Amino acid sequence: MDKKELLQSLRTRGAPEKIIDAFSKVNRENFISYNLRKMAYDDAPIPLVKGQTTSQPYTIALMLSNLNLKPGQKVLEIGSGSGYVLALISELVGKTGKVIGLEVVPELVRKSRENLEDEGYKNVRVFKRNGSNGFSDEAKFDRILISAALRDVPEKIMAQLKNHGILVAPKGSRFEQEIIVLERRSENEFEIKKRLPGFVFVPFVEEG
């Protein structure tokens, strides 16, 4: 599958046009190993290092669609891997937005910083950090994306959402999860707006 075919596949499966546009602007091949570039536009996960992967494009599109990203927002991705999803988020929030990635695997932190710099994404920063505590330095966030599987979303992370902010995360057992879409309704009230079953993500890693 080439890039044009992937974009058409995402469109056929119902991805919003603004998501398609972001995918069209980001070169996935630049966020994976050189020897795997022939797979860059397959609608499938691609291995990174230490058992980590970059997710299937359809799954990424689904999560980004449910985040309902808007220009100027401040967004946190926990488990940011190679930086590919950070680049997509950057396209969706625009130059006035702010994007922060947390990644615990040192090789991925280093490589994602290089990838994003090479691709010219100036509103994205990546930190080597255990994501289970979120990123209180920059809280609160309009949107939070967790890109690895958790049994439960830590309250510390939920607390870093702004009121009416949205969090999207895979939640469940090691071998099967549902993607939850959670909204902070008020200071003390959170509501799960959607549960999308039938996904398998790599597990949340706390140490690199």
Describe this structure in words.
The chain has 208 residues and is of the alpha/beta class. It has a single domain (3-199), classed as Rossmann fold (3-Layer(aba) Sandwich). It has six helices and nine strands, in the order ααββαβαβαββαβββ. The protein has helices at residues 3-12, 17-25, 57-67, 84-93, 106-118, 155-158, and strands at 46-47, 53-54, 74-78, 98-103, 124-128, 141-146, 161-172, 177-186, 189-199. It has a seven-stranded mixed sheet, covered by helices on one side. α2 packs across α4. It is globular. The protein starts with a helix and ends in a 9-residue tail after the last strand.
Q: Features of this protein?
A:
208 residues; two-stranded antiparallel sheet; 9 strands; 28% strand
Characterize this entry briefly.
This protein is of the alpha/beta class and 208 residues long. The chain has helices at residues 3-12, 17-25, 57-67, 84-93, 106-118, 155-158; strands spanning 46-47, 53-54, 74-78, 98-103, 124-128, 141-146, 161-172, 177-186, 189-199.
Beta-strand segment tally:
9
The protein's oligomeric status is single chain
**Number of structural domains:** 1
Radius of gyration: 16 Å
Q: What gap, in angstroms, lies between the N and C termini? A: 33 Å
Spans where pLDDT lies below 50 across 5 or more residues: none
- What would the principal axes of the Cα set say about the shape? globular
Strand order of the largest sheet: 5-4-3-6-7-8-9
Return the average pLDDT rounded to an integer. Answer: 95
The level-1 CATH class: Alpha Beta
Structural class by SSE content: alpha/beta
Here the CATH topology equals Rossmann fold
